[in-house]
Amino acid sequence: MSIQRYLTALNAKSLVLGLFASFSIVTSSISLAQNKQAPYPQRIITVAPHLSEVVESAGGANRLISVSVYSNFPESVKKLPITSDARSIDLEKMKQLRPDLIIYWRGGTPESQIESIKKTFTSIQVVSVEPKKLTDIASDIETIGKLLGTEAIAKKNADTFRAQITELKNQYQNKSKRKVRVFYQVWAQPLMTLNQDHLIADIINICGGEQLFAKEKLLVATVSREAVVKANPEIIFTAVDTQQMKTDWSMWSSIPQLAATQKKAFIDIDGDMISRPSTRIMQGAKRICSEIDRIR
Q: Which SUPFAM superfamilies match (predicted)?
């Protein structure tokens, strides 16, 4: 299973299970399932690919002891044991590793797995992360930094990320009154896209784009090819694996009246740089902004 399909599966499954709750505190999308009085955590397990990246930004990469499948940044995590994937969590292996902090993605971890973790690890901190805006990523970094006692490095990286967001907004968000019609293709068969509550929707808005199907009820929504043609996107994005061949765009490029066809605006984005809510998503955001600006 590719990373893009993995993340899609996580989103789809979590929608069915109703996991997309509101943030539990105002300043961050992190919530503490259990908050025991203890020294700063030294043995961290993460339960989604992007979480090792967030921990790294918070200054805790050297405390990671286990990660999920497809975790590949920072480089050091590739050597760590894997204890979770989109379908399951290896609780026995987790117990053997003796973690003192577990971080999971509330928007992508099935409720049954969350409950199993809480029941198994009753004396340690279990932390959930659910960023829905780019600024939430910065807040999450700072909150994890406080948990780890690494506030200084966490604040530095969070502030750098916030400055990059501000720079993008200043450069692109209000550059033109006319918004570019954008279709973000999550999957081709079935044809799926994202609604306005997804993090990528925040990026499209910052870049001065008008996200088609933003009002869909489901975070990851199935749409028809006919509906997309009628909406007439000027540019279409999709995420791909770095090991994957380029997307077959023929289902769209074969339609001459489509604005995206006329503008030759079918764009592959590295999935690691757009599908993972960590600081690396800024690379994908900059690419989306520049491509939207190019065809404006």
A: Helical backbone' metal receptor (SSF53807)
- 42, 55 Cβ separation under 8 angstroms: no
Strand, helix or coil for residue 124: coil
Q: What is the pLDDT of residues 223-260, one digit of tens each?
A: 999 999 999 999 999 999 866 667 899 999 999 999 99
Looking at residue 188, its amino acid is A
CB 67 within 8 A of CB 109: no
Query: To 10 degrees, what angle do helices 281-295 and 151-168 make?
Result: 10
Q: Does domain 174-295 have CATH number 3.30.1780.10?
A: no
CA torsion 285-270-45-144 (nearest 10°) is: -10
C-alpha–C-alpha distance, residues 25 and 5, integer Å: 30
**pLDDT tens for each residue of 23-37:** 222 234 555 544 445
- Residue 206 contacts residue 154 (beta carbons within 8 Å): no
Identify how many contiguous H helices and E strands the chain contains and give both numbers. Answer: 11, 12
| Rounded distance between C-alpha atoms, residue 294 and residue 296, angstroms | 6
What residues contact 16, with CB distance under 8 A and at least 6 apart? Answer: none
pLDDT greater at residue 74 or residue 20? 74
pLDDT at 215: 97
Distance CA 138, CA 147 (A): 15
Q: Where does CATH 3.40.50.1980 sit in the chain?
A: 3-169, 174-295
Q: Residues with Cβ < 8 Å from 293, sequence gap 6 or more?
A: 172, 175, 207, 208
283 phi and psi, to 5 degrees?
A: -65, -40
How many whole angstroms separate alpha carbon 156 and alpha carbon 57?
Answer: 9
Structure tokens at 222: 């199935």
pLDDT of residue 242: 67
Reduce the DSSP state of residue 31 to 3 states and report it.
Answer: strand
